[in-house]
Structure formats: C-alpha cells, structure tokens
Amino acid sequence: MSAPRRGRLPAGTVPLPASSIAVMFACVALALGTHVGSVPAWVLVAALAAGGIRLALAWRGRRPPPLVVRLGLAAAAVTLLYVQFRTFNGLAAGTALLAMMAGLKLLETCTPRDLYVTTLLVYFLVLSSLLMTDSFWLLTYALSVCWATTAALLRLTTTPPLPAWRSSVLYTGKILLQALPLAAAFWLLFPRFSSPLWHLPSDAQAAQTGLSDTMDPGDITHLALSDDIAFRVKFSGPVPPSAERYWRGPVLHTFDGRTWTRGHTGLLRAPPWTPSGPAYTYTVSLEPHEHNWVFLLDWPAHWDLPQGALTADFTLIQPDPVSRPLDVAATSYPHVDFTAAPGLIMRRRDLQLPEGRNPRTVALAQKLRADHPDAAGYVQAVLDLFAREPFYYTLTPAPLGTNSVDSFLFDTRRGFCGHYASAFATLMRAAGIPARVVTGYQGGTLNPYANYWIVRQSQAHAWDEIWIDGSGWIRVDPTAAISPSRVDPEVAAAAAGDESLAPGWREPPHWLVSLGMRVDAIREIWRERILLFDQSSQMSLLEALHIPEPDGEKLVLVLTAALLPVLVWLTWSVRREVSLERGDALLRAYTRLCRKLARAGLARRAYEGAEDFAARAARERPELANQVEPLCRQYSELRYEARAGAPPAAQVRQFAAAVRKFRPQR
Amino acid sequence: MADSNPDRPPQDWIRGWSARRHGQDTLPHTISRRRIYILPTRVGLMLAAVLVAMLVASLNYNSNLGLALAFLMIGVALVIMHHCNRNMLSLKIDAVTQGDAFAGQPATLVFGLRNDSVVDRRDIEIHCLGASAPAIVPARSSASLEVRVAAAARGVVHARQIELRTRYPFGWFHAWSYVHAPLTVFVAPAPRGERTLPWTEGEGSGSRTESRGDEDFAGLRAYEPGIPLKHMAWKALARGGEPAVRSYTGLSAQPEWLDFDALEGGDTETRLSQLCLWVLEGDASGRVYGLRTPGREVAPGRGPAHRTECLRALAAFEAGAS
Q1: Inter-chain residue contact B65 with A120, CB threshold 8 Å
Q2: For residue A398, what are the contacts with CB-CB under 8 A and spacing of at least 6?
Q3: pLDDT > 90 fraction of chain B, expressed in percent and rounded
Q4: Which of A40, A103, B33, B297 is the most buried if burial means most Cβ atoms within 10 Å?
Q5: Which member of A182, A187, A578 has the closest CB to residue B78?
C-alpha cells in the first residue's frame, strides 16, 4: 500500500470521526497556549481558526477543504509571516511558522496518519516554547500538554472499545514516570556543548531590564518600584558590611547638562593598582538583563568569565548580552592602592562639563572651592551642604528645567540618587576634581534559609567616584549624606529591607517576608541546579565520582554505565506486570516451594499437579514426605477448594510463611 | 486503530532464521521474550527524527528545560518499546480448530488467546496464510478469534507458522512473534453436480428423510466415534454404564459406497465436486456410507467426524503439500 496522497483518502481508510479531530484540536490549542506572549497573537488566532474550520466541517460530516484552498491559505500565511518577521531564521520566526503549520495541519487532518503528524508538531511546538525560558511553571505546563497529547494519541490509535479517559491518562502517566529515570540519566550525563553548534540569530526584540547605560535623573524611578530580582550573591568567607556592598555597573562619564552617558571607553586603559587588605570572594548569579555588563563589588580582581574583560573604569563586561542566567565567581578588594594617575584623556573626560549649562552650580562650586583649597575638605563641604540644606529624598521629584543641576540644587531640592550623584559630580568637575557617576546596586537582603543575598531592582543606585591625587579613585555616595528624616515615606515600602535606608518604615508582616524568602531559596536551587547546569557542572559531577581528568568521552562512558541499570530496572518493571505470578501470592509461594524442591534435587514435572508431585516426592525422598505432603495439600486446598472469590489472604500468608521456613536438604 | 498502511511484513529471512533457530513448536504455545522481535514503524521513525531535532535544538540553545523535555520524550519512546514488547509477552496461543473449507469459500481458523496477567492486551493481530484478525484480550481472560483464509482452489494448504503482531501502544513500534506450528487447511472441492445419490436410485424409496420413530428402536450397541450425539443413550451413561447408542433398524442398513471410479464422464475436479455434494447429501440422510477414491478408502461410517474425514480425503486427492 502506498502512502496516502494529500486530499485523497487511500482505499480502505476510514476518515477520522469528528470526535478525534476535536481531541486533536484541543491538544494543538493547549500547545499554542505555551506560546502566548512569545508568538504574535494573530498567528495563534489564525492557527486556531484553521483548526476550528476543520472541526466545524467534521461536525457536519464533511471532508477537509480542497487542496487548492489549503495551498492558498498556506501561501497567504507564509507571506504574512514573512512580512512580519522578514526572515524565517531565528527562534521567534521559526516558532511562529511552526504554530501556523500546526493549525494548517489540523485543517487537512483526515486520516490516522495526520494524527501522528499533528502530535509530532505538538511535541516540537511545546519544546520550542521551552528554549528561551527559565520558568518552572511553563515547564510544568509544557509537560502537562505532552502528557495530555500522548494520552489522546493512545486513545486515537487503538481499536475500540476504548478504555476510559481516566485509565488512558493514568497509563500514560505511568509511562512518563517510567521514562523519568532514563530522562534523568540522559539529562545529567549527556554531553553538553560549551558553545552553540551553529550561530544563533539573535532576537532583536529581547527586552532589556535593569539599569541602562545612560542616566537621565528620573530613570531609576521605575526600578525603585520594581521588586524583581537583579541578581543573587553567595559569599564564601566574610560578607562585606553594608557600606561596602556597592555593586558596580556601567560608569558614566559624559554629561550634556541633562543626561549622563558612558562615552567612548574602548581605547583607554585602567590605571594600574595593587590590592591591599582583605578580599571578598563570592559568586554573582545574574538574572538575564540583556546588557553586557556584570555587577561586581569594588574593586574586582579576579573573575571566571572566559570572555569577560574589565573596562578602563572597572566594570566587568562580556561581548554578548546576558540573556540567560549567568553565574560569575569573583574576588574583589575593598581597598586598593592606585600606583599611577589616570591618563590625560581620561582626566580631561572626567572634568568635562557642558559649555554654559548650570551656571549657578558652577558658581557655587568655585565659591566653595575657594574656601576649601584641599580636595578632601571641599568634598566634605559639599556633603555637608546636602546634609544641612533641606534636601529631600523622594521618588516623585518635580520636573527639572534645561539646567537640571541648577534647578535641583537651588529650586526643587527633591530627588533621588540620580539627582544627587549628578549634582555631586557636576560640583566636583566644576571645582577641578575628576568625577564620574557609577550606576549599579547598593545593599542586598540576606536570605537566611539558604545563606545568600538577594539584590533587587529596587536597590538600583547611583553614586560618584572622584579622583584625588595621592588617594586614587574614591567612592562618594552623596545620597547617603541627606538626613534620614528627609526621606519620603513612600520610598519605604518600595525599599523595604534595604539596609542602606533608615529603619522604622512600614514593613510587610514578618511571616510574609519569611515565606517569600523560602520561595526564593527554592527558586535559587532551581536556578543553580537546573537552569545553570552545564558542561562544567558535568565535569565537576565526574570529579565528585573520582574520575580523573573528566572529559566528554568519559561522560559518555558514565552515561552508558548509568543507563544499564536503569534499562534493566525498566525491563524488569515492565515485564513484572505480565509475570503470571503477579498479584497471586499463593502461586508465588507455591513456585517458591517448587524452586526449593528443585534445588534439593526434586523438580516438579510440568504435568504434575500438587498432590501427584507430593506423592512422588514421598516415594523418592521419604525423609521429606512429612513436610512436603502437608504443604502441597494445603496449596491444592487453597487453590481448588470451591468458594466464592480469591483464597483467604490470611491463609495464603500462613502458607507462604510455611514455605519460607521449609528448608529441604539435598 | 492502527496505521492504515501496515509496514512491509517482516522480512522472509527473519522468518526463516527464526524457524531454524527455534525449531518446531507445539500448540498451545506461550510466547517467550526471546521470541519477540521489534522494530520501529514508519511513524516511529518520524518520531525519532522529531526527537533528534528536539535534542539538537535544545543543545544549540543550551536550554536545560528543552533538554529535559527532549530527554523525557526519548525516555517515553524507549518505555513504549518495552510496553509494546510486553503487550505480547506470555500470551498463550492455541489453535482451536483446523480450518476446513470448500473451494471458493473462506476457511475459518479459530485461535484461542489466553492472557493470565493482570494487564489488558490490546490490538493483538494474528496473521496466518495471508489473512489476519485483531483481538483484545483483557486481563486474566481469554479471547478466541477467527482468521478467515480465502481458499481459492481445492487442495491442502499448509501454514508453517502463525504470526502474532502488535503495535499497541501508540503505533510507534511493531512487535511480532512467530509460532512455528504447522496448521493445515483442507480445501474440499466446491459441492457441485447434477446427479443424485447413487443409492436413492437403487432403492427407489424417493425419500432421504428418515422417519425414525420409537418403533424402529432395535436396542443399544456400543458407541463408536462418528455416531451422531443425538443417538447417544444418555440415560444408560448416566446409570454408570459404558457409552452406548440407541440403534434403529432403519439405520443399520448396508453401507453405501461413493466411488470415484464409478463416476463416468467429466474431469477429475468435476467428479470430485460431485462426490463432495454426495458426501454432504449422504451425511444429511443419516445413512452409513463410505468413500473410495483411487489410492484411498474411507471406511463406511456417519456423523460429523466421518463427514470431515471424507471431505479431507477429497481435498487431499492427488494434492501434494502446497
């Protein structure tokens, strides 16, 4: 027989009943559900509509639409997809195409073979939703969809009378459970690659989160209200005090009077420095944020990021954006000695101020500088100014004019870290002290249940670094200078748990925080053990097994060695169900009795009933007769005595115990 | 329902190899694990391709969750392979009857399948002589299934093996097993002819229907195989005696002979068809009759067993094992 041609039924094939098509439609709909939000809505709607048309036709007992119509629809769909994506390469476009294909396949579903193809499409569709996610819930949903689809396939491919839905679902669930050990062995030990097999076209739409590489005072507001986690930190050894937990992000040099930007840093070199004092060793676990920087403590000395490099302003960057969870182990020294001054270009850049902007600030700086000729005294004077004058910390500052620093310092006096950092840097530069704005995060919350620190988006911060000859780069946090009594209470709720801000604010109830911490601890395990499991984890697994010089080949050997017992278990557990003794304790005990006697040199012949066997045993081994005869009689009574239902369990147990005690000698 | 396009039947060389390896089986036969072969179906190969694609995609995107799903589905496929194999394991097959047929009509081979385990066996197919029948054998029960073999020409058809197949669950794998037990199908000639029974002409009674009343009862005699059960003396048996049959005067007539050589005219098959018709008519008349064909003689007798013996003799006439 040849394969069925499209649109025509092969001879002898019964068209699928509408109920089968409805079941398949439901499976495809569930699979499309994994893509809500990642595939354009119109694609999902179109795919469902195609399936819905087929379903409506099937209810009326009609065939799929003719080939011409289907081809036309397919061509239209592909064209629309191309118009939207301009490519079929890449995950987003590929997934949309796949979703559309699943819908169109439903449209032509007519034979059992189409059902198989549809289920395969469902499997792949579900998989594609998992490729770029880290969500435990999506994985759970995806597995449920596969379970339901497989159970549906079971029913659609067997001959009636069909078993109940419940038993189909349970049977499929059992198959999934039996597959779990195999899957676990493969997952742990199947060699991973450290780099992709081929280049992945990057999806341009991936949204960047967290800090950006520009700072417009006002930017950080949206972060301050976000409870999302930016990264987690696990310290090995001492934990720095709050005042030293400044997580360094992009450093901004160029100021146009309103916005701070990074400027060009490519060719500059960091001034040399030597560490002094203690070091902190820790691992930063970044959530994906689609930028290419990594947040480390001041001043980073070592890090295990193969392609990572430190910029001239001490930010760790890597060539690719962080689009997957990333763990970076690093060492930082809170105190370092700078052995040489920054180069002229760098110094000039960090002194640059826009021409003619913020004149009142420049005047103020010059006046203060005249009073404090030494740099340290000047810095202190500026901080005193922030502390003394009525500066308020608020997340809802009034809008600033063109000369943003002027209006902040002299008019509104309300702002948050961005405003203070910007004003402070301007005051420094105007007084001839090289200054730059550092953005990042400050603080962190300890999760006591798993002993790591959580840094949230609400802890985003901006501070300054100034160069003082003889001392090097010094971190100054002007926001910390303002009086805690002048902090807007609204900030409190958003920044709860942030140690850098004064206590006494309204906090969520303790149990809620504690619950949240526990959930986050589980999430961290999920992240660390599941999401970040990679080649190097596999190698450390081999090391833990005391395998010297682990590599891919040894991994395959270990995988094979692990699969063997799993497969033996699988075979045993599957065959056990058809073993004749299963569920029959009496037969099991009798078989054991026969086995014992066979070992003692007295094998039961296939045609012998229990009592014939006992009689022969008595003839051939008279010394065993007084034991064998009662046992065999008991068995045959239990087995053949006329009664309703199974032999009484208590007596069977008693018989089994007697058989266990029976030890014939050779 | 299984895939509408059964894969190519397992290759002949496997069949031959299996026969050489395992020798003859006797029925009833319990299918052991060493006798079950399994291969992926075409759908199974498609699935394998999709699984590989899923694996490669997950590896490429370095997605641990994708890999988890891909490996789970690979595990499921391997588990299904075991389940497909198990679906046939320890089934007990027996041939309840040998097939007998008239040329041009299907021969019905009745098989019994016994499932002593606690799981249902679904979608088992028995293939024999190019025909097949599906069966479901629920847990701890039996099923009998009839395979209708088309019998075109008169003769004796020998089946060297019976094949059991299953694709349950999911139709991703095709498991099969051969039982190397000989089955013979006797295809008797199609009953056809214009002549009436030879003895009705001679006796001139004109009636083939017996009028057997109690008045014809002539006493009891020992039971012989082949005597219709309706003549059994059940009461005598119930009293504890030997099996006996009631004897009637009208039935203890002289045996009549149906003789191949006595038929003139027509070719061999026509004569055999005529003899076949006579056997059926003779059986219906309840008379004692015998059959003579060149090289073989079936002693006079009556009853279904005797009829079957005569029909088989006709089927086997000059027919080598085909």
Answers
A1: no
A2: A412, A414
A3: 14
A4: A103
A5: A182
d(CA B79, CA A177) in angstroms, rounded, equals 10
A132 CA: distance to closest CA in chain B (Å): 7
What's the longest Cα–Cα distance across chain A?
Answer: 125
CA dihedral B207, B211, B216, B221 (to 10 degrees): 90
What's the CA gap between A256 and A258, in Å, rounded? 6
Cβ–Cβ of B61/A132 closer than 8 Å?
yes
Q: Indicate the residue type of A313.
A: D
A534 catalytically annotated: no
How many CB atoms are closer than 10 A to CB A161? Answer: 7
Measured between alpha carbons, how far is A311 from A308 in angstroms, rounded to an integer? 10
Dihedral (CA of A320, A325, A328, A334) sign: positive
**pLDDT tier at A312 (50, 70, 90 boundaries)?**
confident
Verify whether residue A461 is a known catalytic residue: yes
| Closest C-alpha among A269, A248, A294, A272 to residue A436 | A248
Backbone angles phi, psi at A258, to 5 degrees: -135, -45
* pLDDT tens per residue, range A475-487: 888 888 777 666 6
C-alpha to C-alpha distance for B125 and B147, rounded to whole angstroms: 10
Question: A143-147, A555-559, B201-205 — which is least confidently predicted?
Answer: B201-205
Coil, strand or helix: which one is B218? strand
Cβ atoms A25, A140 nearer than 8 A = no
A110, A417, A594, A632: which one is catalytic? A417
| Preferred mutation among B43, B79, B118, B132 to probe A, highest tally of A CBs within 10 A | B79
| A482: nearest Cα among A413, A379, A368, A388 | A388
Query: What is the reported pLDDT for A37?
Result: 83
> HSE (CB half, 13 Å, CA atoms) of B2?
23
Token readout for A5 is 């041609």
- Give B93-115 as a DSSP string: EEEEE--EEETTSEEEEEEEEEE
Q: State the ipTM, two decimals.
A: 0.74
- Please state, in angstroms and as integers, the Cα–Cα distance from residue B127 to each residue in A132, A251, A559, B146, B164, following that order: 49, 78, 40, 11, 6
Chain A touched by B65 (CB under 8 Å): yes
Chains A–B, number of C-beta pairs less than 8 Å apart: 191
Q: In terms of CA atoms, which chain A residue is nearest residue B48?
A: A120
Question: Hey, what long-range contacts does A374-379 have (CB within 8 A, 24 or more apart)?
Answer: A375/A433, A375/A466, A375/A468, A375/A469, A376/A468, A378/A431, A378/A433, A379/A428, A379/A433, A379/A466, A379/A476
Q: Cα-Cα-Cα-Cα dihedral of A263, A264, A270, A276, to 10°?
A: 30
A159, A198, A607, best to mutate vs chain B, most B CBs in 10 Å: A159
Chain A positions in Cβ-Cβ contact with residue B59 (cut-off 8 Å): 192-193, 197
Q: Which residue in B63, B68, B80 is closest to A175 by CB distance?
A: B80
Q: Give the lowest-confidence range in A243-247, B232-236, B257-261.
A: B232-236
- What is residue A529's DSSP assignment? I
Q: Is A630 helix (H, G, I), strand (E, B) or coil?
A: helix
- The number of beta carbons lying within 10 Å of the beta carbon of residue A430 is 22
Longest dimension (CA), chain B: 97
Sheet with B141-150, side-by-side order of all strands: B29-30, B92-97, B106-115, B141-150
Contacts of A4 in chain B (CB under 8 A): 4-5
